[in-house]
Design brief:
Layout (H helix, E strand, L loop, with lengths): L4 H28 L4 H6 L9 H9 L2 H32 L5 H10 L9 H10 L6 H5 L6 H11 L4 H9 L4 H12 L1 H16 L3 H6 L8 H6 L10 H35 L1
Helix pairs in contact: 1-14, 3-14, 4-8, 4-11, 11-14
């Protein structure tokens, strides 16, 4: 049953309004990044737009180094979450051992523990391991994720157990079955988890602030905060230009991830 034209017009009109409301802050930040600070503070329409704020953002703090650090941290965390979550999900679905379901429920229960409650224990661990101001201290505490294990476990459960039994008959081991059968089937869920893990890692602020003391491995979110000051008037044009530069990688990932997700759904529908 097709939707009437009048309802379709109303539907898309409401979607456009909602999209404009959601996108308005980003659009405002983008416009402010080309404005002088005096125009921003007075709320006047600028006579001209320039890229001076972007040049100042690169000059005032090591933006490229911070971007590189954030990229390394986000990629390492994403890979670690994909590997550990997929292996744990495989064990909870295809390996038979006593107390498997109870262990899984206990593992999922950790999702109810707020991250702030684990900050102090994690900090003591990386301090004792001498991981302060090092990439392992920024990445390893986030490798194990209950959400990722739950997501992939639900996907793995759709694989028929008869397929696993057939692979055992032909002599295929667990690791080969995991690589050749399970991972290709769960491609869409892996892309979803990877995109979620990357975006979450990229936007981290509190943990990098606690686990770093200098600019060696400090991430871009901490560097962006350095553009703001309490002693003098903030240059909001420079701050907004830095924010726009920071969100560009996430926008690229979202566009690429959306394309891969749609492709995976299409392949799944065809199969």
């Amino acid at each position: 049953m097709t939707m009437p034209i009048s309802k379709k017009i109303l539907f898309y009109f409401l979607l456009s309004i909602a999209a404009l409301v959601v996108f308005a802050p980003a659009l405002m930040a983008f416009v402010m990044s080309f404005m002088e600070n005096k125009d921003i503070m007075t709320g006047t329409i600028p006579q001209s737009l320039s890229f001076d704020n972007y040049l100042k953002a690169f000059e005032q703090f090591p933006l490229l180094k911070y971007l590189f650090n954030s990229l390394v941290v986000s990629i390492v965390i994403t890979i670690g979450q994909l590997v550990l979550s997929s292996l744990a999900a495989y064990a909870f679905v295809f390996l038979e051992f006593k107390g498997r379901d109870m262990l899984f429920f206990l593992f999922i229960a950790t999702m109810m523990v707020p991250f702030e409650a684990s900050i102090i224990p994690n900090f003591h661990i990386i301090r004792d391991l001498n991981w302060i101001d090092q990439y392992p201290g920024l990445t390893v505490p986030f490798f194990a994720t209950a959400f990722g294990t739950f997501l992939l476990r639900q996907n793995f459960k759709q694989i028929p157990k008869e397929l696993r039994e057939a692979s055992q008959i032909v002599g295929m081991g667990d690791f080969k079955f995991y690589l050749k059968v399970v991972l290709p089937v769960a491609k869409t869920s892996l892309v979803t988890l990877g995109a979620y893990g990357f975006l979450t890692s990229w936007n981290m602020y509190l943990w990098p602030l606690l686990s770093t003391t200098n600019d060696t491995v400090r991430t871009v979110q901490i560097g962006l905060k350095q553009l703001q000051t309490q002693e003098q008037l903030n240059d909001w044009g420079v701050i907004m230009s830095g924010a726009i530069i920071v969100i560009i990688p996430t926008l690229i990932l979202l566009f690429l991830g959306q394309k891969q997700l749609q492709k995976g759904l299409t392949e799944g529908a065809i199969k």
